[in-house]
Design goal:
alpha/beta, 5-stranded parallel beta sheet, 10 strands, 23 helices, 5-stranded mixed beta sheet
């Protein structure tokens, strides 16, 4: 989807990222393209391009090296989050030339407003329509219409800015989705003949009753925004059937190619067109449940019935995410089977589609570092996205979803098993060198380029002990030597080994050795 793309970055484990996700989950025209909990992953998202806004904490921003693009140092708009309204926080935000600043305590109240204020300038970021009419018209359907505020711009202003000819009436989105049952690559970015044929067909039939029709070509189809009079709504069904019948003549020239026309709802105001876009995509998603090769009108699921299944979507999402973390292929496949066994009327709603989209993103967030050791992560991601995009039945989509991620998990596990000793040895060496610092499993896992869940499992497998017990045991061994040397008292040893206080240290020492540090000193002497 060509929506406003946002990346969220924060190193603090305070639930701030989760709150921002929740706040933005129902914000129109917004899609969260990435979540970053450290500098490296944040920079990967930003350097990948296509990000419109970065919502980034001051703590993380302090770590980020300036890229040299624009006044912020980042090639996108920047909203900074901080701990409060203190002069220091505001000064640091200003130092980075941030576009807006929101204290974390006021996220629920102010984050949406900050996003809308920052995107105000994006609506007019292209040259006037008479200078680049095709570009500005396409920009409207791919980006600008998702940022419109109710009543902020008249149709006359929009028409002047984007080269459109909108009038008062209805606005509706259609998506002509191409599928190939043979699995052959028929549509790609260089194959324009089919798209041109469909655009001409739409203009000649459906488009004749419209004030304006905008097109956005995708490699797997065409997204269409139609603006037409209220009275044309009565003829809509007949026009769609006519359009579909004539479309069959075009697709008939391409063996095994099918076209599905998915139709969103009609809205009276242009700033609500984004809703029709989402509905058209929901309808298109439903085609894989035995409904392809048809005209699909968006059907709003029963609210009560959908609500009962929302928790099921959440539970399955958590189970699959957990399987990604620990590379549990059996659990992943079992949970995926359950996900795609949902009734199609429910599985095609936004929550189900969003669940799958989110899992695709999270897989690479969780395992990106390991994948990078044996494959080009971006190319692999694009390859999987394309395979799933061209899956035209639920059986095909499920099989491809399972096989793509299973294959990658097998490769990760195979690589990890071949390299098992190396990361564990490296982790042990890191602990031995930094035993006096505050060590967390997350920090050490990052040091050896493994996700924490998998590192924990691997460490236990290789050493027979969990990581926390190993660190505690190693520190006790150091403590024994320090006690024997007699150069430090108990409190000093506790501080040297990063224990919270002497009491905690003494308690663990006695639990491990059977005597207190003082008693051990007497026995040693």
């Amino acid at each position: 989807m060509d929506l406003l793309k946002i990346v969220i970055g924060d190193t603090a484990a305070d639930g701030c990222i989760e709150r921002m996700e929740s706040i933005l989950s129902d914000e129109p025209g917004v899609i969260i393209s990435g979540i970053a909990r450290d500098k490296d992953s944040f920079m990967r998202f930003v350097k990948r391009g296509g990000i419109d806004i970065a919502i980034v904490s001051l703590g993380l921003l302090d770590q980020v090296e300036r890229l040299g693009h624009g006044s912020t140092g980042l090639p996108c708009k920047v909203v900074v989050t901080g701990e409060g309204r203190s002069y220091d926080s505001l000064y640091r935000a200003l130092r980075y030339h941030a576009d807006d600043y929101v204290p974390k305590a006021l996220l629920s109240k102010n984050l949406r407003g900050a996003i809308r204020n920052v995107t105000e300038g994006l609506l007019h970021s292209l040259p006037p329509a008479n200078e680049n009419k095709d570009t500005t018209r396409r920009f409207f359907i791919t980006k600008a219409m998702y940022l419109l505020k109710p009543g902020a711009y008249s149709l006359e202003v929009i028409n002047h800015t984007y080269g459109t000819t909108f009038r008062e009436g209805l606005f509706r989105m259609l998506f002509i989705k191409f599928d190939c049952f043979a699995g052959a690559v028929v549509i790609d970015e260089t194959s324009t003949a089919l798209q041109e044929a469909y655009e001409n067909l739409v203009k000649d039939s459906f488009g004749k009753g419209c004030f304006d029709v905008l097109f956005d070509r995708k490699y797997d189809g065409i997204m269409i925004l139609a603006n037409y009079p209220q009275g044309f709504e009565k003829e809509l069904g007949d026009k769609l059937r006519e359009l579909f019948a004539r479309a069959q003549e075009i697709t008939g020239r391409f063996p095994e190619l099918f076209a599905t026309i998915s139709v969103g709802g009609a809205y009276a105001h242009v700033h609500e067109a984004f809703r029709s876009h989402g509905e058209a995509l929901d309808a298109s998603w439903s085609r894989i449940f035995g409904r392809n090769g048809k005209v699909l009108l968006y059907e709003k699921p029963n609210a009560g019935e959908s609500k009962r299944y929302l928790r099921k979507f959440e539970e399955l999402g958590i189970r699959i995410r957990r399987a990604f973390e620990v590379l549990d292929i059996e659990e992943f496949q079992k949970s995926t089977d359950e996900l795609f066994a949902m009734p199609w009327r429910l599985a095609c709603i936004y929550e189900a589609r969003a669940c799958v989209i989110r899992l695709k993103i999270e897989f690479f967030e969780i395992n990106g570092k390991l994948i990078k050791t044996f494959a080009d992560t971006d190319n692999l991601r694009k390859e999987i996205d394309y395979i799933l995009m061209m899956s035209c039945t639920v059986e095909m989509y499920k099989a491809n979803f399972k096989s793509c991620y299973t294959k990658v998990m097998e490769n990760i596990r195979g690589y990890a098993e071949r390299q098992n000793a190396a990361p564990v040895r490296k982790a042990i060496a890191f602990v031995e060198k930094n035993y006096g610092s505050h060590l967390t499993m997350k920090d050490v896992a990052a040091e050896v380029n493994l996700n924490p869940m998998y590192f924990s499992k691997l460490f236990k497998k290789e050493t027979g002990r969990n990581f926390t017990d190993f660190v505690a045991s190693y520190r006790i061994e150091i403590a024994k030597e320090l006690i024997k040397e007699g150069m430090m008292n108990v409190s000093e040893i506790a501080r040297h080994l990063s224990f919270a206080d002497a009491r905690c240290f003494s308690k663990l020492f006695k639990k491990t050795m059977g005597v207190t540090p003082s008693e051990y000193r007497k026995l040693s002497s």
